[in-house]
User: Fold this.
Amino acid sequence: MIFGKKYQYSLYKPGRRKKSFILKIVKFFLIVFILYEIITGIFIFTLNVKSNSMEPLMQKNNRLLVFKPSYQQRIFNNRFTIPGIGQPQRGDIVIFHQNFKKDYPWYLKPLNSIIKFFTFQKKELKTKYDYNDRVNLSRIVGIPGDTIKIKNNVAHIKSMESDIFVTEFELNKDKYNINISSFPDNWDSKNNPFYLDSDEIKIAEGYYFIMGDNRELYLDSRSSGLIPEQSVKGKAVFRYWPLKRINVF
Amino acid sequence: MFFDTIPKALYIHIPFCKKKCSYCDFYSIPFLSSFSLPIEDSFIDGILKETVNQIIYFNKLLNISTINSIYIGGGTPSAIGWEKLEKLIKTVVSMYDGLPEEFTIEVNPETVNRDLLKMLNDLPVTRISLGVQSFNKKMLNTLGRNATIEAVYNALELLKKYSDKKLSIDLISSIPGQTVDEALSDVTTALSFKPSHISLYFLTIEEGTKLYQKYSEKDQDEMCWIESCELLGASGYDHYEVSNFCVPGDECLHNNNYWKIEPYIGCGLSAVSTYYSNNSFCRISVTDDPDVFLKGEKSLWGMEKEIVNNHDFLIELLMMGLRTKNGISLEKTGSFFNIDLKKLLEPVILKWDKKGFITPNDQLSLNKKGRYFHTSFMIDVMESIPKNL
Assistant:
């Protein structure tokens, strides 16, 4: 009994130390995880380019930093809005969602994040067959107020301040090259549905006309129309890999 | 009777093409080959003549007087020129009472021209299956396709202008080096021509093909094919078989026949037929040696008969049936073989149902997601079917 009492008043209890040590580790990882989620969810995240939609500027497996506060963000399945520094500008390289699959339900995304985080991105839920998991990379070509038409896959734009159509290249501060299929001179371009000179489109408030620099791919506004502002999820600001092509956009 | 005994489908193999594609393991004699002499016209005529003779032989042997579907494939049927093709089609159609409900001809883009399409318009052909494979230059190169991208668009434009047939477009996905965006872009482009049917194949790199020497499965991204399937589904196309999509109601009758393992006759060099006689399932393969084939009925076109045993037949039935959205009736199939198929497959079905891959209804069928894993499912099924049925 005496010994029992002795232990009762002692600071040292076997087991307690072990428990608090584990608790500390759990707490530490939890805080790191939450910080990581906040940073990658609202501020900045890395992107491994899997598409060639932005060739010749970007190649497959280039790594980018995507800055989210550039634009307004909707979080928790569009329930809350965080204001952005500005709005998508002409020439911005953006990531966007173009859905033909369901969006992740609210509970699965955080769960997937936890699994990915604690397995160092090696494991994830096998949900990619069911839910939208793709990140598209493209360039903002037309902004609200523009009237736009496509000629031979080059955008001709009449901006709000102007009365005439000029090519997308003349309106952009930054220079960029595009990939266009080189068809022979006598080729009748009417055969290619997206090559066809389009009608004029007036871009309404809150919508954008996007096209990848690689115009041989048609997964952009030419095939699926204008995209709403809330689908634009961030701006590609920096390429850190490959090292010799480090670049600020 | 569970199965028809009289075949209602006819496949005609035209074993010629302009140039062999890198992924192709079908039997064909390319016109452009550095090793062989130019193919003489009389040789093509001879092969076509014996193909027709073989059809007549089968019609007599199996008492076939009407036919539901005819499919001319290859090789490249349109490569032999529209005059020869017209003669062949007219001859074949005249053999049967009434017209077939569906008559498909495979056409390659580089061989499409106004004359061919006008000729087809005057004949009871109902579907044209255009072998596009990809709208991307790089991918066409990898596949070793003869057609240039210009020829592909040109063919589609001509079809839109001059043809009144239903259009089916063949695409190949998960080509080595292809990105998901490239695959989706191919689908988007195909959709812009509003075909009634799209076949979207996951590229299998077969041994013995040129592709096999350069690439392996590791170079393929399965997501190319899966995302493309999803896009087609989202665009209103019915994913009615693992690799086939159609505007609802426009399924390919002829292929449905294969998937149900209904009997069919296949004529021409290297073609295969299946039918039932004396309560067993027969498979007849024609030789791929032109010399033997050209001897005609004397050599019986070099045909070899194989009686497929019950075990293999059941596996084939399940394998083909489960490729389709409708699946297969376990009760009917089981009673044909005098076994309780439901009980036999119960553990496998339970396991896959838990994964959420089975469509719950009377028939056994894999749902859309399950069909992505058709091969793995079949491995489980095969393990539970006893060898000595």
